[in-house]
Design goal:
The protein is α+β, with helices and mostly antiparallel strands. It has two domains: 76 residues, Glutaredoxin (3-Layer(aba) Sandwich), CATH 3.40.30.10; 140 residues, Glutathione S-transferase Yfyf (Class Pi), Chain A, domain 2 (Up-down Bundle). It is built from nine helices and four strands. A four-stranded mixed beta sheet has the order 2-1-3-4.
């Protein structure tokens, strides 16, 4: 497939953009990555996603598709003969995967952001506990969904792997910058091993941000978030 057929509007630190890139890698689809600069929105982005004005946007043959999990589903459904299936084959398993992906986006990741944004020790401790409790919950979800295989989706990376795995770089940066231990081998051993396997996978490792580089970007982003919170 020509690179001109597919474009991603995104930014390298974004975990949501990473979802799109992993899905395209699974399908072995070439694409042009159009980098959006932090703090600005290009005319193409505003035109392509006028409702939310957010990245990522996948542009396929000139048509924009928005919202990361919707994009992942679109890629899986549109290129069924490329790579392996990302969504589970059984309707019940698909529903379960979508449910937990929503939990990750709506409950778990906001708590992770809360660890970084907290300015008082009690608030940071509460957010940290929420993140750890969520990981312990997801440990059980992983055991149920994986059925003894390497990933949530089986022996290959699937929908729920992408939904959670895109945040692993930010999880690690949070641990380093806030001096906390979140993903612990002693409390969530299965999820800990899953994270190692996910990051080492060929469809992931080239788009997973380098930790030091991501940490530098995170300091800038979180400083602005804290300033907005205190103002």
């Amino acid at each position: 497939m020509s690179r001109n057929d597919l474009k991603i509007l995104g930014a390298w630190p974004s975990p949501y953009v990473m979802r799109t890139r992993i899905a395209l890698n699974i399908k072995s689809l070439a694409y042009d990555f159009l980098e959006e600069q932090f703090g600005t929105k290009s005319e193409l982005l505003l035109k392509s996603n006028p409702i939310y004005k957010k990245i990522p946007v996948l542009i396929h043959d000139g048509k924009p598709i928005c919202e990361s999990l919707i994009i992942v589903q679109y890629i899986d459904e549109n290129w069924t003969n490329f790579g392996h299936s990302i969504l589970p084959s059984h309707p019940y398993d698909r529903a379960i995967a979508r449910f937990w992906a929503s939990y990750i986006d709506d409950k778990w990741f906001p708590a992770l952001c809360g660890v970084a944004a907290a300015q008082e020790e009690n608030a940071k401790k509460a957010a940290t506990n929420t993140v750890i409790e969520g990981l312990m919950l997801l440990e059980d979800v992983y055991k149920n969904c994986s059925k003894g295989n390497k990933f949530f989706g089986g022996e290959k990376i699937g929908y729920l792997d992408i939904a959670l795995g895109c945040f692993l770089g930010w999880l690690k940066v949070n641990e380093i910058l806030n001096n906390v231990n979140l993903l612990d081998e002693s409390t969530t051993p299965a999820l800990y091993k899953w994270a190692e396997d996910f990051c080492a996978n060929t469809v992931v490792k080239d788009v997973m941000p380098e930790t030091d580089k991501l940490a530098r970007a995170a300091k800038v982003i979180w400083a602005k978030v804290r300033a907005q919170t205190s103002s």
